[in-house]
Amino acid sequence: MNQQTTPYLCHIFVCTNVREKNPDNPGCGTKDSGELKSIIKQEISERGWKGKVRVSTTGCMGLCGSGPNVLLHPQGIHYAGVTRSSLGTILETVSELIAASNS
Fold first, then answer.
1. Among 25, 78, 85, 92, which has the highest number of CB atoms less than 10 A from its own CB?
2. Are strands 10-15 and 53-58 parallel, antiparallel or unpaired?
3. Tell me: the pLDDT tens digits for 42-98?
4. Res 48: pLDDT
C-alpha cells in the first residue's frame, strides 16, 4: 500500500444510490442525480478543469431524505436537494477553489 494525497484540487461526489426496498425514501438515484452528474462532468470538461477536478458517483451518504446530495472533497462542503438550477452555485464554489489555488 502507498499512502498519498489526492491529486485533485476538488473531488465532486454525486450520490446516485437507489434504495429499492424503501419506497418512502428511495434515494438520490431516483431524483435525477445521474443526469446532474453528467451535467457536472460536461461543465468540468468545458471549463478545462480536467486534472484539477474529478467527478465520481458515490453510494449512499446516509442523507437520502435530503437528496440529491453532492459532496466536495477535501473541502467537506455538502449540498443537499441539488437541482439543475443549483448546479451553478456548486460550479461557482469550485471556480473559487481553483482561483484561490492559482493565487
1. 78
2. parallel
3. 999 999 999 999 999 999 888 878 889 999 999 999 999 999 999 999 999 999 999
4. 97
To which residue does cell 428511495 refer? Answer: 26
| CA 38, chain centre distance (Å) | 10
Pairing between β-strand 77-79 and β-strand 10-15 as defined by DSSP bridges: unpaired
Q: Which CATH number fits domain 16-101: 3.40.630.100, 3.30.429.10, 3.40.30.10, 3.30.530.20?
A: 3.40.30.10
pLDDT tens digits, 10-44: 999 999 999 887 777 778 898 999 999 999 999 99
DSSP for 52-98? TEEEEEE---S-GGG-S-EEEETTTEEE-S--GGGHHHHHHHHHHHH
Q: What are phi and psi of 15, to 5 degrees?
A: -75, 130
